């Protein structure tokens, strides 16, 4: 199959991208409106932008509460979605009116942050407190690519082993195409290969 983008509708591009860029981690983003209403919404167009200073980015197709809130208050928190939280995460994607706080509505607990006014989701084992760095707008809708600097990381010791986050304990979920999700507990190790190791063990022999 081959498609030239100009022959595709917006929905078709969306479906192809969601099936190709996979699996995607989910940033469960809490934010505060200018009136102080806590908002919570999942975003799987999510990635690391820079490791030091730690910066992350995600894309929010507008017009939605998350980009509006972050534009107004310049802060947000990224909460990690685990298997146990998946159903409630999905409910926070319901289009509630702006005055409704998804967090309370779906039975989650707001926990104060240290450096931002936006609360964290207590039930999630890992949080990143973020300060807005940049918002880039793309397309007619537009989509907002939001970049934040991570001011602090919160990690529940219950998801760590020997001081490190253990994926078997974290049980994060990822997003696939359509309505599919993936678990992250079926994983394997593949160490990086140095150039010396490559030459010694991996280089294809040419006759
Ligand atoms: C798993 C999942 C991932 C999602 N990822 C995105 C995303 O990356 N960008 C986006 O704009 N919407 C995404 N959505 C849809 C938003 O969460 C949904 O439109 C939500 O109502 C927006 O809430 P808000 O108006 O409170 O910001 C996703 C939904 C789900 C369930």
TrEMBL record:
<feature type="domain" description="Flavin reductase like">
    <location>
        <begin position="20"/>
        <end position="164"/>
    </location>
</feature>
<protein>
    <submittedName>
        <fullName>Flavin reductase domain protein FMN-binding</fullName>
    </submittedName>
</protein>
<dbReference type="GO" id="GO:0010181">
    <property type="term" value="F:FMN binding"/>
</dbReference>
<dbReference type="InterPro" id="IPR002563">
    <property type="entry name" value="Flavin_Rdtase-like_dom"/>
</dbReference>
<keyword id="KW-0288">FMN</keyword>
<dbReference type="InterPro" id="IPR012349">
    <property type="entry name" value="Split_barrel_FMN-bd"/>
</dbReference>
<dbReference type="GO" id="GO:0016646">
    <property type="term" value="F:oxidoreductase activity, acting on the CH-NH group of donors, NAD or NADP as acceptor"/>
</dbReference>
<comment type="similarity">
    <text>Belongs to the flavoredoxin family.</text>
</comment>
<dbReference type="Pfam" id="PF01613">
    <property type="entry name" value="Flavin_Reduct"/>
</dbReference>
<keyword id="KW-0285">Flavoprotein</keyword>
């Amino acid at each position: 199959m081959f498609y030239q983008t100009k022959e595709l509708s917006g929905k078709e591009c969306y479906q192809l991208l969601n099936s190709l860029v996979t699996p995607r981690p989910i940033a469960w983003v809490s934010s505060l409106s200018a009136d102080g209403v806590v908002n919570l919404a999942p975003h799987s167009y999510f990635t690391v932008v820079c490791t030091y200073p730690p910066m992350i980015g995600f894309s929010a197709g507008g017009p939605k509460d998350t980009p509006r809130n972050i534009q107004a208050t310049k802060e947000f928190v990224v909460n990690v979605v685990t298997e146990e939280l998946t159903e409630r995460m999905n409910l926070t994607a319901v289009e509630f009116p702006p005055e409704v706080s998804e967090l309370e509505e779906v039975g989650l607990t707001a926990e104060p942050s240290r450096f931002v006014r936006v609360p964290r989701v207590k039930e999630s084992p890992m949080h990143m407190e973020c300060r807005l760095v940049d918002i880039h707008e793309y397309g007619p809708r537009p989509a907002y690519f939001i970049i934040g600097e991570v001011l602090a990381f919160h990690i529940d010791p219950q998801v760590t082993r020997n001081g490190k986050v253990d994926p078997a304990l974290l049980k994060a979920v990822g997003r696939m195409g359509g309505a599919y999700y993936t678990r992250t507990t079926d994983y394997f190790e593949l160490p990086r290969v140095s150039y010396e190791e490559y030459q010694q063990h991996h280089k294809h022999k040419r006759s």
